Amino acid sequence: MSVPQARRGRRSSGDHSREAILTAARRLFAEQGFEGTSLRQVARESSVDPAMVHHFFGGKDELFAASVELPADPAEVLAGVETLDPAVRAEAIVRAVLRLWESPAQHGLVAYVRGTLGSKSKTALMREMVNRVILSRVVAGLPGTPEERHLRSNLVASQVIGLMLVRYVIKLEPLAGAAQEDVIKMVAPTIQRYLTGELDGPGATT
Amino acid sequence: MSVPQARRGRRSSGDHSREAILTAARRLFAEQGFEGTSLRQVARESSVDPAMVHHFFGGKDELFAASVELPADPAEVLAGVETLDPAVRAEAIVRAVLRLWESPAQHGLVAYVRGTLGSKSKTALMREMVNRVILSRVVAGLPGTPEERHLRSNLVASQVIGLMLVRYVIKLEPLAGAAQEDVIKMVAPTIQRYLTGELDGPGATT
After folding, report:
1. How far is B86 from chain A (nearest CA, A)?
2. Record: contact B185-A167, CB cut-off 8 A
3. Of A136, A188, B54, B104, whose CB is crowded by the most CB atoms within 10 A?
4. Residue B22: CB partners within 8 Å, gap ≥ 6?
5. Could you give the CA distance from residue B61 to residue B84 in angstroms, rounded to a whole number?
6. Nearest-CA residue of chain A relative to B135?
7. Contact status, residue B22 vs residue B28, Cβ threshold 8 Å
8. CA angle at residue A197 from A195 to A200, to 5 degrees?
9. What share of chain B is helix, strand, coil (3-state, %, to 5)?
10. How does DSSP classify residue B166?
11. What pLDDT is stored for residue A200 in this prediction?
12. In chain B, what residues touch A194 (CB-CB under 8 Å)?
């Protein structure tokens, strides 16, 4: 994280290019999605040489991660989840989410959620991030068609995002103050059904 | 909705008082909650006579409703839900939510959610509204202690709010484009378990 003192004189122009690249990347990822955006396009849009984009960020994955500006690293938070048997994965997911949100990262996460949902273009970027970075890990190894796996991942997201909002942002009581283990017991069965249960079974509509 | 032309000359001072009352009400309801806020206090805070608050809004319920500025009337949306047997109430709740969000009110609802979650004081006002106006109807007539009913209502809220965000605000596919009846089949069992099911039963944690 240290900046070589000798290069300080050149920082402002480098910072300027880096910021220009990130601004263009955020707009393009939000408008066209991750797949539809190329590094070449980001370079053209920010008036820098493609080599400069590589120099600052490496590849497209790293540029995307930098442009999303997450306050925590999903790969780290969900470490181990994608290798767990899907039949028992729900508890690990809820546990990981609660551990993260009850860590010192909470303040940054609440600010991220507020800032993101308050802005249409940031929400589009969040959609790409949730799909690419989070949900792909949550449903890794699940049987079924890609369409079914995506649908299951969306349902998991609906319960996890709703839980985060109600417990940490809107703060409805008594759920906001409930013990972690109680929350896990109440919510994990929902996540488990969305992952591997019957979605359209008997008793679904009465 | 028509304004008598003859009174136009006096409108600005009346509008001014009305706005001052609403501004004070929003701040006080957000900071102290509905129960902790009196009409007398709102009047004092906005430097108007208490009679003026009554003149513009009637009672505290009406002042609260006006200060929240909901784009739809929850009483109307949830009409009939509170009188349904709790054992079969989930489907009606999901159906009412989907019907509302897929009506012309959708644009206003998305804007309301964005504006509310983007602001800390508006979120506090939303918390009061969700508790007083929505959840009280959702869990009306449920057995159990008030604490248990509140917890169940919070869990219902976590799934409903998460569904609204994922389907209408973040727009994850394929859930955003799924047919209403499919969404009801997939999500209603979750809501039904939160309303009347075993929350801490076997299989909750594996």
Report:
1. 12
2. no
3. A188
4. B66, B67
5. 24
6. A172
7. no
8. 115
9. 70, 0, 30
10. I
11. 79
12. 186
- Mind telling me how many Å the CA of B31 is from chain A's nearest CA? 13
On chain A, the residues whose CB falls within 8 A of the CB of B68 are none
Q: Which position has the higher pLDDT, A138 or A3?
A: A138
In chain A, residues with a C-beta closer than 8 Å to the C-beta of B152 are none
- For residue B163, which of B190, B136, B140 has the smallest C-alpha distance? B190
Residue contact A178–B130, C-beta within 8 A:
no
Q: How many whole angstroms separate alpha carbon A191 and alpha carbon A108? A: 25
Q: Is the CB of A204 less than 8 angstroms away from the CB of B189?
A: yes
Mean pLDDT in runs of 10 for chain B (206 residues)?
A: 44 78 92 90 94 92 87 86 92 95 93 89 90 89 93 97 96 96 97 94 42
The angle, 0 to 180 degrees and rounded to 10, between the axes of the packed helices A106-117 and B106-117 is 150
Q: Which residue has the tokens 């801490």?
A: B200
pLDDT at A16: 84
Query: Which residues of chain A lie closer than 8 angstroms to B176, CB-CB?
Result: 154
Burial class (CB in 10 A: 0-12, 13-18, 19+), A206: middle
B23 Cβ partners below 8 Å, 6+ apart? Answer: B46
> Residue A162 is nearest to which of B118, B135, B162, comparing CB atoms?
B162
Beta-carbon-side half-sphere exposure of residue A80 (alpha carbons within 13 Å)? 8
> Residue with structure tokens 């017991």?
A185
The two structure tokens encoding residue A109: 């996460």
**B167 to A158: CB separation less than 8 angstroms, yes or no:** yes
* Strands (DSSP E) found in chain A: none
Q: Report the distance separating Cα A28 and Cα B128, nearest Å.
A: 38
Contact criterion met (CB < 8 Å) for A166 and B147: no
Q: What is the DSSP secondary-structure string of B29-87?
A: HHHHTTTT--HHHHHHHTTS-HHHHHHHH-SHHHHHHHHHT-SS-HHHHTTTGGGS-GG
- Cβ of A83: how many Cβ atoms within 10 Å? 11
Residues of B in contact with A160 (CB under 8 A): 162
